[in-house]
Design a protein that fits this description.
Distance between the termini: 70 Å
Largest sheet: none
Number of helices: 9
Mean pLDDT: 83
Helix content: over 70%
Shape: elongated
Number of domains: 2
Order of helices and strands: HHHHHHHHH
Strand content: under 5%
């Protein structure tokens, strides 16, 4: 019985914290409001979670892992990738983008509150930027034979693209929260297509010397 009550208290805290983070954002979330929402004392909340960061990690870890797995699949390795014709590579990237957009939308639908917190909290949105940058660098290395991915200009370019994409995703997801009629999957596809096309079009500008 004690174990059951403990799990119920834990669930009540997590449910209250998720709502608090969604309504106020991580930075402005209050442990006092979380305790009140969970019908517990603040001291009791701290017995289960030492601080707000531990609470956020518990709530967001599953969603973060799912997002990371999707971003990591932007352009998986394929034997002989660099020998493919340019149009084959571009079409391949576009097919991957369609899949990735669908997956991100599904994660958003399943974990809307968590996704919104991640998008608007710098410590977590910066993780997404790092994941996109890593995937872009790997994509350039695997799929663009004329480009040396491990140079400062290319790393900077991939970082700038990653920052722009996360900012654009933030806007798209916010619009879909405010206006459910927005076709989020289509918007994401068009937005991400733009960036893969830019990488493809710029290949000859960054030939290895």
């Amino acid at each position: 019985m004690a174990q059951i009550l403990k799990e119920e208290f834990r669930f009540a805290i997590l449910s209250a914290a998720k709502k608090e983070f969604y309504d106020f954002g991580y930075e402005h979330a209050s442990m006092r409001r979380i305790a009140k929402q969970a019908n517990m004392t603040v001291g009791n909340v701290y017995r289960y979670f030492k601080n707000k960061e531990m609470l956020a990690q518990e709530i967001l870890s599953e969603t973060l892992e799912k997002i990371n797995l999707v971003i990591d699949q932007i352009a998986p390795k394929e034997e002989g990738a660099q020998t493919h014709e340019p149009m084959y590579r571009l079409n391949y990237f576009h097919r991957r983008i369609e899949w990735i957009s669908t997956q991100l939308v599904e994660i958003f639908k399943e974990h809307k509150e968590e996704f919104v917190v991640i998008i608007y909290q710098p410590r977590y949105s910066n993780q997404m930027i790092d994941w996109f940058k890593k995937s872009f660098l790997q994509m350039v290395s695997d799929w663009f034979p004329k480009v040396d991915a491990f140079t400062h200009p290319i790393e900077l370019l991939c970082h700038m693209l990653a920052e722009s994409i996360v900012a654009g995703l933030s806007r798209g997801f916010k619009e879909s929260v405010d206006n459910p009629e927005v076709d989020l999957a289509w918007s994401l596809q068009m937005y991400l297509h733009l960036y893969t096309t830019m990488l493809y079009a710029g290949e000859n500008l960054y030939e290895k010397t």
